[in-house]
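Quick start: what a row looks like.
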Amino acid sequence: MDDAEPQAQSDLFPQSDVSLVRHAPLADRMRPQDFADFLGQEEMLGESQPLRRAIEGDRLPSLILWGPPGSGKTTLAGLIAKKTQATFVPFSAVLNGIPELRGLLKTAQQRQNVSGQRTLLFVDEIHRFNKAQQDAFLPSVERGDITLIGATTQNPSFEVIAPLLSRSMVVVLQPLNDEALGRILDRALTDSARGLGSSRVSLTPSARHRLIEYGNGDARSMLSALEFVVGECTGEKTPTTIDRPQVEQALKEKTLRYDRDGEEHYNLISAYIKSMRDSDPDGALYWLARMLEGGEDPKFIARRMIIFASEDISNADPQALLMASAVFRAVEVVGLPEAQINLAQGTTYLATAPKSNASYAALLAAKKDA
């Protein structure tokens, strides 16, 4: 296979391309182009924050960007690309494999040796590489040939090898709050160049609230829903005001398929956890079945069971942690489809166990005093 590296670019989202602006999905068109427009992560990226200063000073360490879909990982990488003097190379763990990666790393080493030029390598969905494949990054990171920026929706403690983690700063991006989602929504409705401003569409307050609620912390999901709703509800007559019933009807018609790395992934695991927390074994089994039918990684579910056992049951039933850990081990040893039985057993045990978050609450209190 050809060892040519993926084409480097200084801007992941070039807005000069008229066709891109016209035909790209609304969520892509509305990506922030500077930090002033990057909403919802001010605690980490405010003007006085160390990470913001490191980006603007072009002195970044290797980073692992960890956050749910729509929280801004890829957008942040695009902003970093604009600020750095290094050669910025985007690389997808989904679209590329180890042969392409080796060619890229070889080119980065040659670039460093010949011209002293650094390479900033952005690896989207780095968790898609298994741990043996991730080893390929280590020599280049250790030599300083590349500064690695890995993006993942998965907990890097489980999905990124320890040697890479120890050489990287883990940046946690939070789900966006309703205020940030509202500002993003309003901007999309009024921006004529990149958004829907030329459509002369407005939302009633209740319709606006429903779309923010639908986003559930995910700007991309909310903007995708907005684009769909506007397409369904507008015709030749303008201007148009969309109300909540129209939004509800449009969202019912929007087919939602389960995506292990998309918004439904987080919606379903959240519903699963809430059912166990409410001591509802039937509901928990329903959401478990939904996830398994959708292709969810059973080890992801088992890990969440372990966390739940300590966070929500704790010493009210110390056996819960042993049960959850045993389920995880069974999933590793048995595998699907039989491991579904182990998951169901663990789910019903945790759902019916007595609940206490005293240990977790005490830890939070102790951390405040530390």
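That is the whole record. Strands lie at 62-66, 87-92, 119-124, 146-152, 168-172, 201-203, 240-242. Residues 1-21 have pLDDT under 50 and may be disordered.
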